[in-house]
């Protein structure tokens, strides 16, 4: 396999790496960085690829190993040693710091406001479903067909999703 053929195949397969990278990193920017690092390593080490083997699997292996290595670097960097009588490791990574309740309080207020602004015909079935009623029970209580109940709950969810779009992660 020539260098140009190898590069073309790697480029073609690069699009299939994104879902796996997102699954590993859980962040779009980190996933893009991981894909880029994977492609750079693959192109730098093309002589290590054995023609006739699965190139896609080889790229996935490079990506997984890169992710693990980066994770280990971050973990080692954020771990400090306590010099007390009993030696213990303290993890000081910012991802594990407890947050105050202000953010969740704002979110809860926004959610409650969005629910209050729903049309009454959508809010009632939605709140009944949210509190644990079954579709059939809601239909009997409101004296409407079960299909209407399902439709109204679906529309309420859709409206809430639109109103609370700022809380959706970008993926």
From TrEMBL:
InterPro entries: RNA_pol_sigma-70-like, RNA_pol_sigma-70_dom, RNA_pol_sigma70_r2, RNA_pol_sigma70_r4_t2, RNA_pol_sigma_r2, RNA_pol_sigma_r3/r4-like, WH-like_DNA-bd_sf. Keywords: Sigma factor, Transcription, Transcription regulation. One of its GO terms (biological process) is DNA-templated transcription initiation. Gene3D superfamilies: 1.10.1740.10, Winged helix-like DNA-binding domain superfamily/Winged helix DNA-binding domain. The keyword Transcription regulation applies. Residues 110-160 form the RNA polymerase sigma factor 70 region 4 type domain. Residues 18-73 form the RNA polymerase sigma-70 region domain. Pfam families: Sigma70_r2, Sigma70_r4_2. One of its GO terms (molecular function) is DNA binding. The keyword Transcription regulation applies. Belongs to the sigma-70 factor family. ECF subfamily. NCBIfam families: sigma70-ECF (TIGR02937). This is RNA polymerase sigma factor. It comes from Adhaeribacter aerolatus.
